[in-house]
Specification:
Distance between the termini of chain A: 8 Å
Order of helices and strands of chain A: HHHHHHHHHHHH
Strand content of chain A: under 5%
CATH topology of the largest domain in chain B: Dipeptide-binding Protein, domain 3
Number of strands of chain A: 0
Oligomer: heterodimer
CATH superfamily of the largest domain in chain B: Dipeptide-binding Protein, Domain 3
Number of domains of chain B: 3
Number of domains of chain A: 2
C-alpha cells in the first residue's frame, strides 16, 4: 500500500507543475493587468508602468515564472499585490475555512445520501421511496446559490434563527458552538446537490446487491432483516459508492465558490474569484495550487478507502 | 428524509447556539462594506471602500467641510499660499498625538510625504503608492519648526489643497511605519477619531473610540466594518439586524427599505459623472453636429428614472454639480429630442453606417452599464443610427478604451469619480491628454480654448477665479459635445432607526465621528 501511495503522490507532481504553467499563461493572456486593476480610472500608461515596476511585473514572463518557482521551492508563495500580505497566509487561512465548510457538507451529504438511498432501495416503489426520489430530484436541480438565498430569507431574515453570513459572530463568539451555528446554513446548502447524487447512486447500488442470490440465502437462513441490509447488502454496495463520494468531494469544493459568496464564508473559492478579477496572479497561483493538491489528495484517499473495502482490488 | 435530517441537524444546533446573535452589539456601530479592505495604509489604496474606514482612523492636514467639497483646516490650523502659487506653508495644531503615542509634528508630515514621493526614502519600499502622482507637483517638504511645515511645488498647482484632503494625503504615524514596515497597512496608526483595534481577515475590521481625539471624542465605543461582497447577502444582513449602516444599496431594494419605518434611506449626489466617450477623430462623430445629435437622441431622463430607478440625476455637462463652487448651474442638459437628432445627423452627412459601441459588464462607478448600453443602443437606432455593442469585463474594457478608440469604436461608456473639478477634464479633455501622451482623452477631443482654460485654472490659487475658468470650460465642452453627458450618481445608504447623526458626504467618504446609536 505504501509504495502505491508514494507512486500516486509522485505522479501528482508533474500535474501540479503543469497546472502552474497553465495558470500563469492564462493569467498573462487575459487582457488587463494588476496595475490597471489597482489604479482603475487613474491608470495612465505612465502610472501603470511605474506601478508595474514597483510590483516586479516589468520583467519578462519566463523570468517572472522562474522567480515564482524559485520562491515556491523555498516555501514562499510571494506577496499578494491587492491584499498587501503574504499569499501563503491568505491561502492557508482561506483554505481551512473551505475545508471546514466542505467537510461539513461532505459529512451531511454522505450520511443523508446513504441513509436516503438505503431507505429508498429497501422500500422500493413504496411511499418513502417516492418521496425521497422527488426530494432528490429537487435537490439536484436547484441552483445552490438560489437555495442559499432562499434559506437565508426563511431562517435568517424571517425566523431569525440562524445568522445570514460570516463564519463567526462579529462580537464575542469564536468558539465551536458559534462556528457550528454559522456553519449550518452554508453546509446544508452546499450539501444539497451531492446528497441527491449519493442518494441516487446508493439506491441503485443497493438494489443491485439486494437482487443477488446470497441475499436470498441470508434471508432464507432466517437472519434479521436489519442485519441483511446493514451487513450483507450495504458493505459490498459501499465499494461502488465510495469513489463517487470522492468525486463529490471535488464538486463540493468547486461548488463552495457560490456558497462562499452568498454566505460571505471566508473560503478559498471566493478568494479566487476576487483574485482573478483583480488580476492578482500570485494569489491565483497559490490558490489554484492548493486546491489542485487537495483534489489529488481526495481522489487518492477515496481510492485507498475503496481498496481497503474491497479485498479483490488489493 | 433529507429534509427531516436537515431540520433535525439545524434544531440540534439551535440548542447549542447563543440566542439573539443577529443583533448588533451595544454602542458599537456595524457597517456593511462592499469588499474586504486592501490595506489600511492610506497611501497604498485607491478604492472608496477602503477610504470609508481610513477617514475614521486618520486625519489629513485639511479636510472637506461637512456636506461640501471645499477644504477646511484639520491637522493644519491655517495655511498661507505664496503669490506665485508655488509655496504652501501650514501651521500645525499642537498637542496632537498618534494612536501609538508618538507626537504629530512637522517632521511626521515630512516623513510621510517623503515615504510616498522620494524613491530614496528608506521607507519607500513600504509601498507601492499608486496615487502618489496626486502629489507629483511637490518638489520639497520642509519642516521649518515642529509646528510649521512648508511644501515647495515645482509649478503652481491649484488642486493641491483638495488633494491633501483626499485619503492619499492622510497623515500616518512614522513610528508605526518604522515598526511594521511593509505590514503597516495591517497595523495602522493615525490621529483620527477612532483607533485601530483588530483586523480579522475577511470578517471584520474593528476600530474603537479615541477618547483624546483633538476634535472631540466620538460617542460610539466602537465601529465594526464587515465586508459582505454579495449585494443580496448584504441586504439580508441589514434586514435581519446584523448591520446598522449599509452603503451602495442596489436600486431594486431601495424601495423596500423606504417603505419600512425601521430604516432610514439617505441619498447624496457625489463628484461622479457617467458619460459616453465619442470618437471625435473618425466618422460619424468627427462632426460636432453628429455628437450633438447623439446627445439629443438619448433619453437620459428615462435611463435615470427607469434603469437606475432614481439613484442618479441627469448630467448637464462634464463637471458634476457636487463641485458646487465650480459648477456652472446655468448649464441645461441636452433635452430628449429625436426629431432634432435626426435632422442634425442628416446635416452632418451621416448615411446610416454601423458604429461600434464599447460596453462594460460592470466596474467602479459604472452603475448598470449593460442595461444602460442597451437602452442607449435602442435610442440611437430610433434616430437611424445602427449601433453594434461589444461587451467586455471591466479590466479588459479599460485595456481597450484607455489606449484610445481610433480604428476600434465610435463610442464607449465611462464613469469617473474625482475629488477636484480639475482632475477629470484635465486628464480627459485636453489635447495634451491624448492616450499616446499619457492621458485619458480616448475620444481625441481637442479645443485650444479648453486647453488654455484648464491650464490656467491650475495656475491661479484664488477659488473664485478658478471657478470662472471652469464655468467657461463647461460651456464650451457642453456645446462641442465630446461626450454624451448622461448621469450623476447619488450615493445611498440605509441606516437602522436607532442610528443618529449619520450623514452621507459628497466626497463619498463615511464620516462617523458624530454618529450616535440609541439602544
Amino acid at each position: 500500500m505504501v509504495p502505491y501511495i508514494a507512486k500516486r503522490l509522485l505522479a501528482a507532481v508533474p500535474v501540479l507543475f503543469g497546472l502552474t504553467i497553465i495558470v500563469f499563461l492564462i493569467m498573462a493572456m487575459i487582457p488587463g493587468d494588476p496595475a490597471t486593476a489597482i489604479l482603475g480610472s487613474y491608470a495612465t500608461p505612465e502610472n501603470v508602468e511605474k506601478l508595474n515596476r514597483a510590483l516586479g511585473l516589468d520583467k519578462s514572463l519566463p523570468q517572472q515564472y522562474l522567480i515564482w518557482l524559485g520562491n515556491l521551492l523555498q516555501g514562499d508563495l510571494g506577496r499578494s499585490y491587492t491584499l498587501n500580505r503574504p499569499v501563503l497566509d491568505e491561502v492557508l487561512e482561506r483554505f481551512s475555512a473551505t475545508l471546514i465548510l466542505a467537510g461539513a457538507a461532505l459529512l451531511i451529504c454522505s450520511l443523508a445520501g446513504l441513509l436516503a438511498g438505503i431507505v429508498s432501495a429497501v422500500r422500493q416503489y413504496g411511499w418513502a421511496d417516492k418521496i425521497i426520489t422527488v426530494l432528490v430530484l429537487v435537490g439536484i436541480s436547484t441552483p445552490s446559490f438560489w437555495l442559499g438565498l432562499l434559506l437565508i430569507l426563511i431562517f435568517s431574515v424571517s425566523l431569525r434563527w440562524l445568522p445570514v453570513s460570516g463564519m463567526y459572530a462579529i462580537y464575542g463568539g469564536g468558539d465551536l458552538p458559534d462556528l457550528l451555528y454559522h456553519l449550518t446554513l452554508p453546509a446544508l446548502t452546499l450539501s444539497a446537490v451531492a446528497t441527491g447524487v449519493i442518494a441516487r447512486l446508493t439506491r441503485t447500488a443497493m438494489l443491485e446487491v439486494l437482487r443477488q442470490d446470497y441475499i436470498r440465502t441470508a434471508r432464507a437462513k432466517g437472519l434479521k432483516e436489519s442485519r441483511v441490509i446493514g451487513k450483507h447488502a450495504f458493505k459490498p454496495a459501499l465499494v461502488n459508492i465510495v469513489p463517487v463520494i470522492g468525486i463529490q468531494a471535488g464538486f463540493v469544493i468547486g461548488g463552495a465558490v457560490y456558497i462562499e459568496t452568498v454566505f460571505q464564508w471566508p473560503g478559498i473559492g471566493s478568494m479566487l474569484v476576487t483574485a482573478i478579477s483583480t488580476r492578482d496572479l500570485l494569489l491565483v497561483q497559490g490558490g489554484v495550487l492548493v486546491v489542485a493538491a487537495a483534489y489529488v489528495l481526495f481522489n487518492l484517499v477515496a481510492d485507498v478507502v475503496q481498496t481497503l473495502l474491497d479485498p479483490r482490488l488489493r | 428524509m433529507k429534509r427531516l435530517f436537515a431540520t433535525a441537524f439545524a434544531l440540534a444546533l439551535f440548542a447549542l447556539a447563543p440566542a439573539s446573535e443577529a443583533q448588533t452589539p451595544p454602542n458599537a456601530l456595524v457597517v456593511g462594506q462592499i469588499a474586504e479592505p486592501k490595506s489600511l495604509d492610506p497611501q497604498a489604496v485607491t478604492a472608496v471602500n477602503d477610504f470609508r474606514i481610513l477617514v475614521n482612523i486618520y486625519d489629513g492636514l485639511v479636510r472637506y467641510k461637512d456636506g461640501t467639497l471645499e477644504v477646511e483646516p484639520s491637522l493644519a490650523k491655517s495655511w498661507k499660499i505664496s503669490d506665485d502659487g508655488k509655496t504652501y506653508t501650514f501651521t500645525l495644531r499642537d498637542g496632537v498625538t498618534f494612536h501609538d503615542g508618538s507626537p504629530f509634528n512637522a517632521e511626521a508630515v515630512k516623513f510621510d510625504f517623503e515615504r510616498m514621493l522620494d524613491e530614496k526614502s528608506p521607507y519607500h519600499d513600504t509601498g507601492p503608492f499608486p496615487l502618489a502622482f496626486f502629489f507629483s507637483a511637490v518638489d520639497k517638504v520642509i519642516a521649518d519648526d515642529p509646528q510649521t511645515v512648508t511644501f515647495k511645488l515645482k509649478e503652481p498647482y491649484a488642486p493641491f489643497l483638495s488633494n491633501l484632503a483626499y485619503p492619499t494625503g492622510l497623515i500616518v504615524s512614522p513610528e508605526a511605519v518604522k515598526k511594521y514596515g511593509k505590514d503597516f497597512g495591517r497595523h495602522p496608526s493615525g490621529t483620527g477619531a477612532y483607533k485601530f483595534e483588530e483586523w480579522d481577515a475577511n470578517s471584520k475590521v474593528v476600530v474603537t473610540k479615541n477618547p483624546d481625539y483633538w476634535d472631540g471624542a466620538p460617542d460610539l465605543d466602537a465601529v465594526i466594518f464587515r465586508p459582505i461582497t454579495d449585494a443580496n447577502t448584504r441586504i439580508a444582513e441589514m434586514l435581519s439586524g446584523g448591520l446598522d449602516i449599509m452603503v451602495e444599496v442596489p436600486p431594486d431594494s431601495l424601495q423596500q427599505f423606504r417603505s419600512d419605518a425601521s430604516f432610514t434611506v439617505q441619498e447624496q449626489a457625489g463628484p461622479h459623472v457617467w458619460f459616453l466617450i465619442l470618437n471625435a477623430k473618425e466618422a460619424p462623430f468627427d462632426n460636432k453636429l453628429a455628437r450633438q445629435a447623439a446627445n439629443y437622441a438619448i433619453n437620459k431622463k428615462a435611463l435615470v428614472e427607469n434603469i437606475l430607478q432614481g439613484t442618479a440625476d441627469v448630467a448637464a455637462g462634464p463637471t458634476p454639480p457636487a463641485f458646487a463652487w465650480a459648477y456652472d448651474d446655468k448649464l441645461e442638459p441636452y433635452p430628449y429630442d429625436p426629431a432634432k437628432a435626426k435632422e442634425l445627423l442628416k446635416e452632418a452627412g451621416y448615411k446610416g453606417e454601423e458604429v461600434t459601441f464599447y460596453v462594460t459588464e460592470g466596474g467602479s462607478g459604472m452603475l448598470d452599464p449593460v442595461a444602460m448600453g442597451t437602452a442607449i443602443q435602442a435610442d440611437l437606432e430610433a434616430v437611424g443610427m445602427k449601433v453594434k455593442i461589444e461587451t467586455f469585463e471591466w479590466n479588459s474594457f479599460l485595456g481597450k478604451v484607455n489606449p484610445g478608440l481610433e480604428g476600434k469604436a465610435a463610442m464607449a461608456e465611462m464613469a469617473w469619480m474625482t475629488n477636484d473639478p480639475d482632475t477629470l477634464p484635465f486628464l480627459t479633455l485636453r489635447s495634451e491628454a491624448f492616450p499616446d501622451k499619457g492621458g485619458f482623452n480616448s475620444g481625441y477631443y481637442s479645443n485650444p480654448e479648453v486647453d488654455k482654460l484648464l491650464d490656467k485654472a491650475r495656475q491661479v490659487t484664488d477659488q473664485a477665479e478658478r471657478a470662472k475658468l471652469y464655468k467657461q470650460m463647461q460651456e464650451i465642452v457642453h456645446d462641442d459635445a465630446p461626450w454624451v453627458f448622461v448621469a450623476n450618481w447619488k450615493q445611498n445608504a440605509v441606516t437602522r432607526s436607532g442610528v443618529q447623526g449619520f450623514k452621507l458626504q459628497p466626497s463619498f467618504f463615511l464620516m462617523l465621528q458624530h454618529v450616535k446609536k440609541a439602544s
